[in-house]
Amino acid sequence: MANDHGLEYMVFDEAHCISQWGMEFRPEYLNVIKKCKEFKDAYGDDMCISMFSATVTDMIYDQINEVIHVKRLGQENDKKIYNPIRSHIKMDFKEVFHDIPHRLKEIVDYIKQHNIQAKKSRMLVFCKTRNQCEELSKAGILSKELSTQAIGYFHAGMDGDDREEMYNRFKDDNDPLYILCATKAFGMGMDIPNIHYIVHLMPPSVMEDYLQEVGRAGRNKKMYIDAGFSESNPIPTLCLCSKEDIKKAKEQLLQSTLSWKNLEEIRVAINSYITKIQSIDKTKEYPVVVPNTLWANGQFDHDFTDFKNGMYWLERMKRIKMGYLSPAHINITILDNNSADSNEETLEERIKRLSARSAIHASAILAELRLIQKEQKNSNIQVSIQRLAANLSMPSAKLLDCLIGCDKHKIIRIEQEIRCHIAFTRLSEVSYMLDRNSHEIGRAPV
Fold first, then answer.
1. Is the pTM of this model over 0.90?
2. What pLDDT was estimated at residue 12?
3. What are the φ/ψ torsions at residue 162 (nearest 5 degrees)?
4. How would you label 233-272 residue by residue, b for 16+ Cβ within 10 Å and e otherwise?
5. Residue 18 or 348, more confident
6. Is 175 exposed, middle or buried (0-12, 13-18, 19+ CB in 10 A)?
7. What's the topology of domain 89-250?
């Protein structure tokens, strides 16, 4: 970019997600605009930043515009109230009892009332949770004339191949799905031309989500006219809502709000982590890579989203300055002969206790760690897994395995927790490794 004096264009589609998703579960999106401002300052007007969305509210516009000036196009700038839903789509709301069985009955009535022609139309049922998608798809809401395989579900927790299969069946006429129960994971980049029926099991948390999801209907004019819809007979969409839905949405909003106490806890956690590596004053000149798992807002904050949101607000308050996302780093202490954990054995003696192959790997890793220690001038060193793997010509997974082995034999000490997940595709290997007390998968005998 520096050699080319920036980019000719930087384009954002569905730009409302920068603010909306950034505040909810993708805090990294909030930093995009800050980087755009830095690029704009560096490269000037030669670099055009374009953003596209059908659902930019005044709040979203103001949040983006306060960082980098954005000119609204596609509507008169003084007409800030507009309807992104096209005139051939009708939005209806119906108050229902809060329980799922009653909502399910309303969906059945909706299908019967509109006499859906499955050959010409598809139907989306938007749910708030993954479990609701799966349970609803098995509830038998289709008419008896259709195949039992004509309804499916779609959410972010599914395997990628399964999601693609569901999407293709919903889109195509070969072994088709006529009704799809989906979370908001079914959305951007998915253009199904003949969606003519949309029901929300319950209202989304924010209006922008609702407008985006309703906007999935009627994408192909010829198809919706062939199905009997027009501006005078618009595509019917229905949102089922109860008084409890609104109350629960308010409660969830309050629960997800970070308090001043949370922000102070996050600031202390960051400072405490940094001072184990180097001084705060030194960090102002030489940044430290901070893992995004330092602080969790309760036992259910598995993705550490609140920590990342907290860093965003700390930066806005000028308490910290963030840079770019960095490849995985890990903090390591070399357990030399004078270490309290050395068990009165020399480092060389501990390495000799390893198998021949493991000893070779441990010695090579130790040599690289010595170089990093000399560079950082600290006993607790911060190591880039990617850089170390490249220097050793070793796959990252193999390197992590060796580092854990070195920690186990008190050659090094890993100074932080490492989150590990067993992938389902490798689950069958676990019993093999446990039976043989081995971390390696060898070739099966021929």
1. no
2. 87
3. -65, -40
4. ebbbbbbbbbeebeeebeeeeeeeebeeebbebbbeebee
5. 348
6. exposed
7. Rossmann fold (3.40.50)
